[in-house]
Design goal:
mainly alpha; 77% helix; single chain; MetI-like fold
Amino acid sequence: MILAHTQLLPARHDPAWWGRVFWLLAGAVLLWPMLVLAEFKPWLLLSPESLRPTLRFLADFFPPRVDGPFLMMLVQETWRTVAMATAGLVLALFIAIPLCLISVRVLSVSALSGRMAWTSSVIRLVARAVLVLLRSVPELIWALVFVRVVGLGATAGVLAIALTYGGMLGKVYADILESGQEHSTVSLLRNGAGRLQAFFYAMLPQNAAELTSYTVYRWECAIRSGAVLGFVGAGGLGQQMDSSMKMFNGSEVSTMLLVFVALVALTDRLSAWLRKALG
């Protein structure tokens, strides 16, 4: 009885404790030279030379500017930023969806017999390579290129977002579709359905919620990117923020930051509503 009671007692120590400690120390050993190479020195933020200008800069943020003419200008530039992000994302979808459908192995008819035909394999690799190329170049670099080509304004921002986000969306869409259940898709293809029919009737319904959630998230990221692209002359709210920061007008900057917080909150609620509607 005493032996049985002893066996029922819980272990005094976590059996995986030593393993967790080992990997924690190993991670610290690997991370330390990276921090040294990056010259990461957070204690410099607490030095008097850094604290004084930081506090003075933050003090200029209050109170935010809320007069009528400035708010009207802010509404116009905010709408321009949202329009730039939305137009860029729509163009990105026209790039991402075809490349995604080409690069998804499950939709390959030749792969049903086992090994994919070499022509289909080459086309799939080319589509994947294009997606890698598009997302490898940051939208800021694309914006700098297009500002020189088409001039200052929102057109450069739209094209920059379209190319970079086209590569991102296409890659993630393909990963989402390939990670889903393949049975219904393969069944439709084996019974004579086309690639688009298999996509719309099998793959899309089971992955619609995840695809929509990621698309809305990327739209939120595109709005933030639109603000950053404004600093290189792509127009929108970012260009106004750049002007205000150069003039050391912290009250205008704080109002613009509040607008960005509101935009992100609205897109988050929109994403939650869409997931619920599609769930």
